[in-house]
Design goal:
By secondary structure, this protein is of the alpha/beta class. The chain contains six helices and seven strands, in the order βαβαβαβαβαββα. It has two domains: 87 residues, Rossmann fold, CATH 3.40.50; 56 residues, no CATH class. It is 37% helix and 13% strand. The strands form two sheets. Strands 2-1-3-4 form a four-stranded parallel β-sheet, sandwiched between helices. A three-stranded antiparallel β-sheet has the order 5-6-7, with no helix packed on it. Helix 1 packs across helix 4. The mean pLDDT is 90.
Length: 171
């Protein structure tokens, strides 16, 4: 399956995994962002209903949620591991290594919205972000989230992510 075909929803216990999947280009909704204001049982039903309506795969560490969602015909995967890299490894095993392990500038890691490449004439916008190093503006590509305004670039953090992901490829 391609990145565009595989869409996820991660339960509240898998926040880091949802961030990593977004970094890898996957459309991943974090259950805490659904803003369900009701009891836990109702939240589980709301998550299952949302998953089914959106044709997503439910990723969860909650055995009861897996059982309830499966009864409703929801495609779900029970994640056993605590560590996010081990969780990604579980996805690799489940999808027979058909999970992208290369960071893709396509989705905001914070809000899941699509990001777009910053154009040449938009350098002022980059200067207004205190976390963007001024010394690299004009020397590398940047992307911006149209929804929350977060700026992305391929800095040392991307190299660190690639190192961590490469370790998954070798196991």
């Amino acid at each position: 399956m391609t990145i565009e075909e595989l869409r996820f929803i991660a339960d509240r216990m898998l926040g880091k995994l949802s961030t990593w999947l977004r970094v890898l280009g996957y459309d991943t909704v974090y259950a805490a962002d659904l803003n369900v204001n009701s009891t836990e049982v109702d939240e589980d039903k709301a998550i299952a209903d949302f998953t089914q309506a959106e044709s997503r795969v439910l990723l969860t560490r909650d055995k009861e949620l897996v059982a309830a969602a499966t009864r409703e015909g929801v495609q779900c995967l029970y994640i056993k591991a605590d560590d996010v890299m081990a969780q990604l490894n579980e996805l690799l095993l489940y999808y027979n290594d058909n999970i992208n392990l290369e960071p893709v500038p396509a989705r905001c890691s914070e809000c899941n919205a699509r990001i777009r490449k910053v154009e040449e004439g938009e350098a002022d916008m980059l200067m207004n972000k205190s976390y963007v190093p001024a010394s690299i503006i004009g020397h590398c590509d940047f992307w911006i989230c149209e929804h929350c305004g977060r700026i992305y670039w391929e800095g040392s953090h991307w190299q660190n992510m690639r190192k961590m992901l490469n370790q998954l490829r070798t196991h």
